[in-house]
Amino acid sequence: MTDPVFILAPMDDVTDTVFRQVIAGCAPPDVYFTEFVNVDGLQSPGRDRLLHKLAFSNKEKPIIAQIWGLKPENFYKTTKDLIEMGFAGVDINMGCPVKAVIKSGTCSALMNNRDLAVDIIKATQRAAAGVIPVSVKTRLGYNEIDLSWAELLLQQSLDTLTIHGRTKKEMSKVPSNWSAIGDIRGLRDKINPSTKIVGNGDVISRQQGLELAKTYKLDGIMIGRGVFGDPYIFAKDSPWLNKSKKDKIELYKKHIELFKDTYKDNERSVKSLNKYCKIYISGFDGAKDIREKLMRTESIDQLLELVVAI
Ligand SMILES: Cc1cc2nc3c(=O)[nH]c(=O)nc-3n(C[C@H](O)[C@H](O)[C@H](O)COP(=O)(O)O)c2cc1C
């Protein structure tokens, strides 16, 4: 069996072009995803404020744009735009469980509005017109595991179906259910063998991903939060555990410098860097105190100065 495709998961406000470039420089995944971007916003006068979420560099390729929203016509228009922008694929988010997001009927709420879910997929596929692949990322069900949802999605001739092994109700509170992901792969074999199945949830090493893919006969493994513990997670043999304090600080410095060069118009605040601090500033004496100091910083230049001085 060939190795599964390893994918860096979309994580809103985390896997932006800057962080993706950091990961690319450590150990690139086979495929990148953007953060999810709202199609109804993209097709509104507020479009320009969202475009930074679709920025990518040549280092992050192939890259798939992940979109979400309500109106099929906006999925259509956005998909046409994404082709122009050079994306390698378009993925529809049907899994996000966040209240503020689903209250308008989007993302995981589409599990309860299946006619609209199908309309959205069809509009996206019409626009993609075979030029770029269309995929869906979803969960096991809404309140409980519901294989009829996966069955419906498998009937839509998707290129890929990514399953995060939890229900909407479970949020992130229970372990990812890989055997249920395996059941969906079994359904795929019967309903639509050409749709690739990617499993997602709680993978913290490439080796673990390889084993899960083998056990459940999956085409791909998607890793999100695992990169916080090891930015080299996609490497065949990750060197992260042997990295020195100096190496880690150097990597953080690179991240901050790239952030500074990328967001010249303050599209993202310096505070948004805080969430990465623990990746780089950990595993050595005094790390906690240093982190607390760095996270109080109000300007990017001050942050850089402090990091250089560690
Ligand atoms: C901070 C954060 C933001 C996320 N944003 C997205 C998103 O934009 N689109 C999406 O499909 N999933 C999103 N997710 C879910 C992840 O892609 C992934 O499904 C989930 O974290 C489980 O995988 P993991 O255990 O490998 O992290 C997000 C998760 C986190 C923690």
Shape verdict? globular
The main β sheet shows up as: 8 strands, parallel, barrel
* SSE series: EHEHHEHEHHEHEHEHEHHHHH
Low-pLDDT regions: none
How many β strands by DSSP? 8
Percent in strands: 5-15%
Count of individual helical segments: 14
Gyration radius from CA atoms, angstroms: 20 Å
Residues in helix, %: 40-55%
Q: Walk across the major sheet and give the strand order.
A: 1-2-3-4-5-6-7-8
- Rounded mean pLDDT is 97
Walk me through what this model shows.
The protein has 310 residues and is α/β, with parallel strands linked by helices. It is built from 14 helices and 8 strands. It has helices at 17-26, 39-42, 47-50, 72-85, 99-102, 114-128, 147-154, 178-191, 206-216, 226-229, 245-262, 277-280, 287-295, 300-309, and strands spanning 5-8, 31-38, 63-68, 89-94, 134-139, 160-164, 196-200, 220-223. Helix content is 42%, strand content 14%. The mean pLDDT is 97. It is globular and about 60 Å long. The chain has an 8-stranded parallel β-barrel with strand order 1-2-3-4-5-6-7-8, surrounded by 4 helices. Flavin mononucleotide (FMN) binds at residues 9-12, 14, 35-36, 66, 93, 95-96, 137, 164, 200-203, 223-226.
State the gist of this model.
The protein has helices at residues 17-26, 39-42, 47-50, 72-85, 99-102, 114-128, 147-154, 178-191, 206-216, 226-229, 245-262, 277-280, 287-295, 300-309; strands at residues 5-8, 31-38, 63-68, 89-94, 134-139, 160-164, 196-200, 220-223.
Provide tags for this entry.
310 residues, alpha/beta, eight-stranded parallel barrel, 14 helices, binds flavin mononucleotide
